[in-house]
Amino acid sequence: MCTFNGILKEYPWISIDSFLTTNCQVSQVFFISHIHTDHLRGLDEPIFAEYITNNRSIRIYCSEASRHFLSILPAYKHLSQFYSIINVDQPYTIENPMDKNIAITVTCFGSGHCPGSLMLLFEGSHGTVLYTGDFRLYSHQSNRHRIILSKKPIDTLYIDMTFFEPSIRQLPEREQACQELIHFIEQYDNRYFYLKTSARVGYEYIYTSLYQHFGILIHVNSEQYHLYDYLPQVQQALTIDAHGTRLHACWPKCSCAKSSIKIVLSVLWFTLQQQQQFNSPLIQISTDYYRLCYSLHSSYNEICTFIKQISPTHIHPIALPNQITPSRFNELLKQLGIDQFPTIYFSPSNFEQQIKRRYQTIENNNSNDDNDELDFDCGQNQENNEKQLYKRISNLQQPPTKK
Ligand SMILES: [Zn+2]
Ligand SMILES: [Zn+2]
């Protein structure tokens, strides 16, 4: 989950993935790396709409896919006229609307996280900055790295370090996880399957692979279906006809999927089982209840490979592993040859923030529309999940014990 405040230290007139009052006070140019809700904080608030309506020079830049998604999602479509497209691999010069003498060159790259997700490279008088957004690049996918490396050396790397923890050294590649899922489904000719996803987008590879393999459409709700009007190659794998299929990824779960085999697509649960080694990305939890390790974020090894290739002077994490301490974090960075001063300090409350936000989401919305792709679903059903989360939050609210 993104915990970055959005403001680039080097270029505070630019905010990325955060649209709160603090951002509006200093930034006039905004970027959206992708459409998971932890990267859209404040964008749906009336205060931001008012700010942008009263300041017509303000711009919000995003990929074409993100603009399409945002322009049809109820919470964000009122800002349609303000989303400006930036294309990948194409440098743009962007002026500071408050001072035309200040400009920056921005180039974006795909980040391998979800449709339309971008990495952003900024080049200007205060140094070269790369913002990865959420990213998943396998260690052998070095093409994108090479493109970035052909640019100037990176002064600051703002990077998704969600799994920057040696115990999460490797995560199954998504193709491998999907293959495992296909093998599993193949064993049950007559059973119904319910795939529990935890974000709006990011599971397209699963949908299209299942459709290609089985020739069976996947049931989703109408909003989800029309999200893919822009991506017909994904949409052709989906259906809004609940009765016509035994593969369901609908939300809320339709009555046709009631006695199905439930498979939760997520990764966080696996990373929390620290002592356990899993031989397969798909594991059984109980009768008709399974989990598939499907990560949209890079593993520890993948993050390390990326950092070594980029070799930045400074690192600024935009997301951190659960409960990592600043000293541990800085020690791990040193092992990668990055000995920055001042060392990074952050409050080790990242995990608490995540759980609290997730709980508020469930409380307020009771749907998965506002979740991002890190799933806290630890129980058999929504009610259990809420209880689990509530328990964890209650514990968090106790005063901290002194060590
Ligand atoms: Zn994301
Ligand atoms: Zn369904």
Automatic annotation (TrEMBL):
<dbReference type="GO" id="GO:0006303">
    <property type="term" value="P:double-strand break repair via nonhomologous end joining"/>
</dbReference>
<dbReference type="GO" id="GO:0036297">
    <property type="term" value="P:interstrand cross-link repair"/>
</dbReference>
<dbReference type="Pfam" id="PF23023">
    <property type="entry name" value="Anti-Pycsar_Apyc1"/>
</dbReference>
<feature type="domain" description="DNA repair metallo-beta-lactamase">
    <location>
        <begin position="280"/>
        <end position="317"/>
    </location>
</feature>
<keyword id="KW-0233">DNA recombination</keyword>
<dbReference type="GO" id="GO:0003684">
    <property type="term" value="F:damaged DNA binding"/>
</dbReference>
<keyword id="KW-0227">DNA damage</keyword>
<keyword id="KW-0540">Nuclease</keyword>
<dbReference type="GO" id="GO:0004519">
    <property type="term" value="F:endonuclease activity"/>
</dbReference>
<dbReference type="GO" id="GO:0006310">
    <property type="term" value="P:DNA recombination"/>
</dbReference>
<keyword id="KW-0269">Exonuclease</keyword>
<dbReference type="InterPro" id="IPR011084">
    <property type="entry name" value="DRMBL"/>
</dbReference>
<keyword id="KW-0378">Hydrolase</keyword>
<dbReference type="GO" id="GO:0035312">
    <property type="term" value="F:5'-3' DNA exonuclease activity"/>
</dbReference>
<keyword id="KW-0234">DNA repair</keyword>
<dbReference type="GO" id="GO:0000723">
    <property type="term" value="P:telomere maintenance"/>
</dbReference>
<keyword id="KW-0539">Nucleus</keyword>
<dbReference type="InterPro" id="IPR036866">
    <property type="entry name" value="RibonucZ/Hydroxyglut_hydro"/>
</dbReference>
<dbReference type="GO" id="GO:0005634">
    <property type="term" value="C:nucleus"/>
</dbReference>
<keyword id="KW-0255">Endonuclease</keyword>
<dbReference type="Pfam" id="PF07522">
    <property type="entry name" value="DRMBL"/>
</dbReference>
<protein>
    <recommendedName>
        <fullName>Protein artemis</fullName>
    </recommendedName>
</protein>
<comment type="similarity">
    <text>Belongs to the DNA repair metallo-beta-lactamase (DRMBL) family.</text>
</comment>
